Amino acid sequence: MREHKNFWDRNAGRYDCFMRKDRAVYEKMYELICPVVKDKTVLEVATGTGLIAKHIVKSAAHIEATDASPEMITEAKRGNYSAKLHFSVQDMFSLPYASKSFDVVIVSNALHIVPQPEKSLREIKRVLKDDGVLIASTFTHAENSFPGKVKAFFMNLAGFPLHSKWTSEEYLKFLQQNDWTVRKSVVLKASFPLTYTECVKSEV
Q1: With left for phi above 0 and alpha for psi between -120 and 50, is residue 69 left, alpha or beta?
Q2: Which residues, in sequence order, are CB contacts of 65 under 8 Å at separation 6+?
Q3: To the nearest whole number, what is the mean pLDDT of the chain?
Q4: Euclidean distance between CA atoms 8 and 4, whole angstroms
Q5: Are the CB atoms for 131 and 105 separated by under 8 Å?
Q6: What distance in Å separates the CA atoms of residue 39 and residue 35, rounded to the nearest whole number?
Q7: CA nearest 110: which of 189, 190, 164?
Q8: pLDDT tens-digit profile of 163-191?
Q9: Would strands 128-135 and 102-107 be described as parallel, antiparallel, or unpaired?
């Protein structure tokens, strides 16, 4: 994971500017997330600069927001004035929290950029309460428009770590294959198609 951490460390200061063009789709995502996290204890993995956590913290009871990149967490801590929001550097594959600690876990726009997303999902399942909710939005790059394909090409040249190129349907199937039941999914139009999903643990 070190090479990928280096990519995010190098680009932490530019991340918010890069995401600004998709502000409208993120605003829609905040609207979808806020009712789910209302008065809940929340963990966000791969928080980046904390955009989502900062926008939903008023609804939540408490948020632990984590990322593997120290530079991203440094950026995230800037302007964080909420006592309900705590940022820290953590590995999404080996979290330091007790089992069944959180009502909601958020992993947004991250599962497609890690080499073993199923491993992260297992760790998320461990720390999520049995009646908890996983919010797992991700860019589904296999459905990119031509401009999106061009943009993805140049991001790849810059070292962007894209490991999984799913369609929305393939992504939902991937979640189901890893013992999650998708209770809600919405495809949001952004620079790349964004599949917003809410999942619960599948009954075994």
Answers
A1: beta
A2: 43, 44, 47, 50, 53, 76, 85, 86, 87, 88
A3: 83
A4: 7
A5: no
A6: 9
A7: 164
A8: 566 888 899 999 999 999 999 999 988 77
A9: parallel
